[in-house]
Amino acid sequence: MSRFFHTRYANLVPYTAGEQPRERTYIKLNTNESPYPPSPRAVAAAKEELTRLQLYSDPTAKALNERFAALVGVGADEVMATNGSDEILNFAFMAFCGADRPAVFPDVTYGFYPVFANLHGIPYTEVPLKEDFTVDVQGLCEAAGTVFLANPNAPTGIALPAAEIERILAAHPNGVVVVDEAYVDFGAESCVPLIRKYENLLVTQTFSKSRSMAGARLGFGIARESLIRDLQIIRNSTNPYNVNRVTMAAGIGAIEDETYTRENCAAIVKTREFCTHALQKLGFEVIPSKTNFLFAKHPKIGGESLYLALRGRGVLVRHFGAPRLTDYNRITVGSPVEMERLLAAVKEILEETT
Fold first, then answer.
1. Is the dihedral of CA 174, 182, 248, 42 positive or negative?
2. Phi and psi of 146, rounded to 5°?
3. Is the pLDDT of residue 16 over 90?
4. What band does 24 get if pLDDT is binned at 50, 70 and 90?
């Protein structure tokens, strides 16, 4: 870093994104992208909007917000479009946390939570997952602060039922509970209906996974109007044109083709279940998943060794070096052909290992 970099960021450890290698072609199962292209309607709408790039995007995202609100069953003033769900999470740390209001989240979860907390100088408490990697709901209930909960959790893939999240909401009547539903469309129960009951609930969702728009960067916050107004103040104080014209158009196109989304999600879930059973037959322990990825380990080969061996065969998965996670790898559910290639590579590696 330069001598001009402010000392308040001297110890900041940035988020580590998944590999995006360019030196060769890989079967890319490391960043939880969809194996399917975006909706043809989304693509057509995006192409048409390219002719208007000389104009700023609508800072209110009115048309997009109205369509998304109708999709999830809330009012247009109860949603806010953002540049990926990472942006709405960042806004939530800024709006609802501070030196006197710490953040609270599990110790094994989405890696951006501690980054956002450190970026903004917010103290935080990490509540350890239980031995089986399930979230310690009682621990989150007892911890003081603004709760951030990925549901389903990452990288484990385990989902809590809405009734358990209600326990957390009820335990924090004077603080916001943020439920990050990046993977909710793959079999988990959404908490969006609970905004009618709890004024302290903020739900975040993304178009990166189930709607095949990771490269477009589109996310949403869903909450009571009062919380959305708070977040709009933050948005308008940082980047009022946060969602570009092409992404807005593609988002509307995707919403208008919900059947396409549901069919892709069903296909991914089917492939997920097939791959889970296939890995288990090969001796893997696979954590039950409600996401578009699997979290698995094998007793005969370490997580890093398997990751490197797969990488050498042109298959990328995600390995985490944290002590509790190092035996595991996170494997994105790709197309059936991609998963067959993965399984064939794994079989070769295990045969060489034994």
1. negative
2. -85, 120
3. no
4. confident
| Cβ 80 vs Cβ 220: under 8 Å | yes
Same-domain pairing of 291 and 171: no
- Alpha-carbon distance of 290 to 162, in angstroms, equals 14
What's the rounded Cα separation, in Å, for the pair 345 and 354? Answer: 15
- pTM exceeding the 0.90 threshold for the entire prediction: yes
Q: How many CA atoms lie within 13 Å of 259's alpha carbon, on the beta-carbon side?
A: 2
Contact at 8 Å (CB) between 324 and 130? no
Say whether pLDDT at 19 is over 90.
no
Buried b (16+ CB within 10 A) or exposed e, 5-35: eeeeeeeeeeeeeeeeeeeeebbbbbbbbbb
Burial of residue 350 (number of CB atoms within 10 Å: 0-12, 13-18, 19+): middle
Strand, helix or coil for residue 215: coil
Residues 162 and 199 grouped into a single domain: yes
CATH number, domain with residue 23: 3.90.1150.10
pLDDT at 230: 98
Whether 165 has a pLDDT exceeding 90, the answer reads: yes
CA dist., res. 251 & res. 69, Å (int): 12
**33: its two tokens:** 């992208």
DSSP 284: -
**Amino acid letter, 153:** N
Q: What's residue 256's pLDDT? A: 98
In percent, how much of the chain has pLDDT > 90?
94
The predicted model gives 227-252 an average pLDDT of: 98
> If you count them, how many residues does the chain have?
354
DSSP letter at 300? T
Domain that includes residue 227, residue range: 40-256
**By C-alpha distance, which of 40, 61, 34 is closest to 254?**
40
Determine how many CB atoms are found less than 10 A away from the CB of residue 50.
10
CATH (domain of 194): 3.40.640.10
Residue 55 DSSP SS3: coil
Contact indicator for 145, 97 with CB cutoff of 8 Å: yes
